[in-house]
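seq:
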Amino acid sequence: MTTTTYSVNWDLDVFFEGGSSSEAFISHLQNTEEKINEFSSKVHNWETTNTISDSTTLTSLIEHFQIATKKMREAAAFVSCLQAQNTSDQKASEHRAKITQLSASFQNALTVFDEKLTSYDSAVWVEMVKEKGLCELSFVLTERREAAAEKLSKEEESLINALGVDGYHSWSQFYDLIVGKIKIPFQEDGEEKLLSVGQAANKFSNPDREVRKAIFNKWEEAWQDQSEYLSRVLNHLAGFRLNVYKQRGWDDVLKEPLAINRMSKETLDAMWEVISNNKGPLVKFLNRKAELLGVEKLTWYDLDAPLTKTETKLSYQEGAEFILENFSHFGEKMTDFARMAFEDKWIEAEDRPGKSPGGFHTYFPESSQSRIFMTYSGTPSNVSTLAHELGHGFHTYAMRDLHLLNRNYAMNVAETASTLAEMIVSDASVKNAKSEQEKIALLEDKIQRTVALLMNIHARFLFETRFYEERKSGLVSKERLNLLMEEAQKEAYGEALGEYHPTFWASKLHFYITGVPFYNFPYTFGFLFSLGIYARALEEGKSYEEKYIALLKDTASMTVEDLAKKHLNEDLTKHDFWEKAVQLCVNDINEFLELTK
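struct:
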């Protein structure tokens, strides 16, 4: 039996040959602009009659909408990949600017489109979306109609979109430029190396505490050096967003992110309340880990530290095979998808300078392919990240036959699919441990992610909500940002650490993303929601995969509360569901504490 050797580099030429200098991509951008202009023209010329007979015109407009959207997303995905694989790719940055401009034009057309949806009387609208070609889209179209009714006039919203190109979105791109130039000095094998932020971040899981401490000090120093610039970027991003909210008459900064995530405030509050009430076991875990590492209290750079000096390493090939083996216990379709991603070079994993930090999944809708980006150095955490991103990929793959408008799922349910895939791999690792020491190490690695999602993400949420409140009164200084960040971390970690990461607000890309506000709580929702799904999967075995796929297909066409009620018969606005989910995390901690007594 021969084993396929998996490449650590992705194939982007299958989309547009030649990278950022691709003539085919230039042509695609021109064609995208033409399709956007065509859609815009048709929308502006559309004269609604407030009768059901308009359904034919609306169906035609939606088809043009879908064509333009596919082209935009294909272009945006390609440029995201170019910029991630080489942060110094100037041409890719120029393409990004063009895409931002096209996106604003497209958004202006959609603003007009959405406003015209509001022109129908409720009774007419209810009947119209029952018509052929529209009934399958009734949820998303009604959602757009209701959202438009809460915004400003189309002229004002169009102006906001236009100003955002060289304002709001440009500040986000400026952040990318700053981060791309940051180099972290690091002594290794007798010579000083300059690491990208992505490479430096991987050092936080090094088994040698002196290595972790050295890299953390340089890391903190690098972000402090840039904090004056980064604090301005963060303030201007928040200021732009707050001004838009103010003009729309929105007081609550969570109104937009909750709507985007199709989630109620009651659900969010219930989730955080249960987490806050269950910090005790998490603190016990951190204290036990400190004891095992021989320190009085953990510091920030100890959080991802392995418990032994012997670092578990898996080559990329071994990591891929490990994931495939464990996916196979869940279901054949997820396994087949992951194998296709490895074999067809959908993944960029090489550990080299010049790459962006972190990992992501992106989808090319015209080509019906995904791409996954990360920097793989062989740690258990890397294997989990790879499984996580493959989970995102499987989500889009499961929805590939749906209408494009019914595939626009929100971040919280996106993180459900990715976290479930990650959990399958980590849980299998623990169960298949060859010795007690290996089981302890793998269980600790699994609990690390629980700490990240229930403590680290909580700190981000606390920081961001408090920062936005202060930003309403004026600029927030870098010193104040550091203080807000450290206070949030202390609260979220139950005062369990001896040293925190005050410049985390600068180093975390998620605070600077303009496409999705509050890029934090959806991660925690996805993690805990996936635990509920995973519990069902364990009960029912491989036969559950079809039910799981059915749930994924509904993720973009109903609220999360309705999704949970339909597929899990659970009420997310109550504590019960969240208590059961958190208890699964506590069970892992209790097992760890018992094994390490």
